[in-house]
Amino acid sequence: xxxxxxxxxxxxxxxxxxxxxxxxxxxxxxxxxxxxxxxxxxxxxxxxxxxxxxxxxxxxxxxxxxxxxxxxxxxxxxxxxxxxxxxxxxxxxxxxxxxxxxxxxxxxxxxxxxxxxxxxxxxxxxxxxxxxxxxxxxxxxxxxxxxxxxxxxxxxxxxxxxxxxxxxxxxxxxxxxxxxxxxxxxxxxxxxxxxxxxxxxxxxxxxxxxxxxxxxxxxxxxxxxxxxxxxxxxxxxxxxxxxxxxxxxxxxxxxxxxxxxxxxxxxxxxxxxxxxxxxxxxxxxxxxxxxxxxxxxxx
Length: 299
Description:
Strand order of the largest sheet: 1-2-3-5-4
Distance between the termini: 39 Å
CATH topology of the largest domain: Aminoglycoside 3'-phosphotransferase, Chain: A, domain 2
Radius of gyration: 20 Å
Strand content: 15-25%
CATH architecture of the largest domain: Alpha-Beta Complex
Number of helices: 9
CATH class of the largest domain: Alpha Beta
Shape: globular
Number of strands: 11
Helix content: 40-55%
Number of domains: 2
Order of helices and strands: HEEEHEEEHEHHEEEEHHHH
CATH superfamily of the largest domain: Aminoglycoside phosphotransferase (APH), C-terminal lobe
């Protein structure tokens, strides 16, 4: 990673902010995150098409910070320059805490406490009245839009992903997608405000106290299906812990909700393959194909 480039971007935009140290802390599908001076996190979009998502995040998070029981990023630095690449980046005071680690869940006390914190946080988030928000920047995804989006995704899978799979994997994938898109129950939900990417890396924990202290990366927040947040949780932490969190959740529940979460979870690897194909990153393609093939083998 070219840390000097990021140093130059920060120093050019904020000459009054001295940069003493930079430490890459990871990069996901869409952003590069850099820890600066041990006290701040700066976040840079990896592609120009992500900028609009970050703009929504900038406008939405101040309202959310006053409602949730955990911390969210407070963007003290917002740099825009349409003649620069990237044209937007942000910085915020580092939220103390460490990403959720699966091995920490082996401690029953910590596991129960974190599950309760997450369940209560998602209950609060999903329970926010959409009409109470001053910001109208969040994209609203109605059930019919989600169905069309998933139908389009199925067509992409048929054309680009199924040919990459073994015969068994292809048959399983085709059946999985066809049944999902045809099932009206998958698109019968009351839209709520969702995070959209509640993976383990975006959940910050204080392991000494056994508490969730923050949730970061809200660029995929929207008004949509609450099952989406649990699907990402299952993908990042496993089904057992995801169900623990659900036991502390005050929103939609019951076997049909759990089935919807599991169905979305099974579709997730196809998104990884698609991302890899569209961005030319073979590691994502290989990882997603491997997960699909394992799933095709059954339990």
